[in-house]
Amino acid sequence: MALHINNVTKRFGSFTAVDDLSITINKNQIFGFLGANGAGKTTTFRMILGLIDETEGQIRWNDQKIDYSVTDSMGYLPEERGLYPKMKVKEQMIYLGRLRGMEKSSIIKALDYWLDRFKIPEYKDKKVEELSKGNQQKIQFISAVINQPKLLILDEPFSGLDPVNVELLKEAVIELKDQGTTIVFSSHQMSTVEELCESLCIMVKGKPVVQGALKDIKRQFGKKNLLVHADMDLSFLKDMLGVVKYAETAQGCRLQINDESVSQDILKELIMRDGFIKRFDLLEPSLNDIFIEKVGESYE
């Protein structure tokens, strides 16, 4: 079971929102979409769900076109939340679950599980408007997974959540993935994408500029990060051959170098100088580094 997006383009009049996108997302995979606002992520999600039609290309889930015959097996958390504020949580879940063909008893069972999972069982009979924004977001997430979807689309699911609730939601996403759900999500939180996703796509103005397995993307990027903590002036490092970026930190500096061999030249130079080296770490490039460079290149 896989989601296939084949040469998909979406135009609104003369404006191209998504431009020739091709991706395969397999079962039990968490796939991340990244991009600035207006990059085409939400339009892509709406096409996947069959809410809008593609102009060119095709999208297939389990080798069939997505229509009302398969949407009951899908879940969607939109970026703009859409709960009914005057309805109680239980009433709302029953309504949404019944729309997806679920029996009332199954809805209540799933709701109780997720309320306990998120440590908010006391909100079952409360109106949505009585909850904090963070807890409303948990209820919105529950509404997207109440039917145990095979394909789950999450548009900025972690936006506005405090660190504790981000962790709760991440654990829930991983649990669903382990149970066989294919998950596609977007987020501006690079560290979260890096933690959850095996594969991703960075989009700019509707076009994919980076896509593939995260480990391959990092390897192809080439550049490495070097963290140096020392009780000496490190400003001389910015002029060393192979240093691409230099940034001072409270305890030293953070460098971006174009090859890991440069780190050995830096270490030799540091040893020759007066001062104590407290930390010297060669790090993989972060997803944030890659995003900034690739998106920046696309705007030049």
From TrEMBL:
Keywords: ATP-binding, Nucleotide-binding, Transport. Residues 3-230 form the ABC transporter domain. It comes from the Bacteria. One of its GO terms (molecular function) is ATP hydrolysis activity. InterPro entries: AAA+_ATPase, ABC_transporter-like_ATP-bd, ABC_transporter-like_CS, ABC_transporter_ATP-binding, DrrA1/2-like_C, P-loop_NTPase. Belongs to the ABC transporter superfamily. This is ABC transporter ATP-binding protein YhaQ. It comes from Halolactibacillus halophilus. The lineage of its organism: Bacteria, Bacillati, Bacillota, Bacilli, Bacillales.
